[in-house]
Design a protein that fits this description.
The chain contains eight helices and ten strands. By secondary structure, the chain is α/β, with parallel strands linked by helices. It has a single domain, classed as TIM Barrel, CATH 3.20.20. Strand 2, helix 2 and strand 3 form a beta-alpha-beta unit. The longest helix has 16 residues.
């Protein structure tokens, strides 16, 4: 089974091209967030997107919860995939589909325990994919990603098994644990931010080791 990988928290064109050079199927571009690493101005996101090679998806991470704001962000940045990091209504999905029929929608599920399986199964029919992360939207200052923490992979595995949608696994992944994560969860793709960075910048050596471990897991 081929497991793809997404490099998140891309900061500039050079990082986007480096991720693509190493075989990333997608990059993540983080817009304004209440907390966490990696946000960049929408103007910079819009300047990066045209330089991303064909075949590499551009994920716009958005913390907005109303369709009008999300639609406006996509139109400003031109990313081809929306990664919605907070909970939205079914009506919001419907409005996004109507306004942006060619744009993929990936919903983040923050795996906090067994109830996250029910949340994922309820959302799955309305989206193109799920991304499992380790944030906590219920905190006073929402944590919506980039925690560097691993969550309960047994719950993630059940989401993969039951959801019927491509599942991206995020949350504390790095070269030292990504092979185990793939073997345990069997996701469609893995997603990494801090695990391939040093002092906030994409670290080519960490990226190379991460990609090697993904490939080893795929061969196994």
């Amino acid at each position: 089974m081929k497991v793809r990988f997404k490099i998140c928290c891309i900061q500039n064109i050079e990082e986007a091209l480096l991720a693509a050079q190493y075989g990333a199927s997608a990059i993540g571009l983080v817009s304004a967030m209440p907390s966490g690493p990696g946000p960049i101005p929408e103007e910079r996101i819009a300047s990066i997107v045209p330089h991303v090679p064909r075949g590499v998806a551009t994920f716009l991470l958005t913390s907005r919860q109303d369709s009008a704001s999300i639609i406006a962000q996509q139109r400003r940045t031109r990313a081809n995939t929306l990664q919605i990091v907070d909970e939205v209504s079914v009506q919001t999905y419907t409005e996004l589909r109507e306004a942006l029929p060619d744009i993929a929608i990936v919903q983040v599920i923050h795996v906090l325990g067994p109830r996250s399986l029910d949340e994922a199964l309820a959302v799955a029919p309305h989206v193109d994919g799920l991304l499992l992360d380790s944030g906590n939207p219920s905190l006073a200052v929402k944590v919506l990603g980039g925690t560097g923490r691993v969550h309960d992979w047994s719950v993630s595995r059940e989401i993969v098994r039951q959801s019927g949608k491509p599942v991206f696994l995020a949350g504390g992944l790095h070269a030292g644990n990504v092979r185990q994560a793939i073997e345990t969860v069997q996701p469609y793709a893995v997603d990494v931010c801090s695990g391939v960075r040093t002092n906030g910048s994409l670290d080519e050596e960490k990226l190379r080791r991460f990609v090697e471990e993904v490939k080893r897991a795929t061969r196994a």
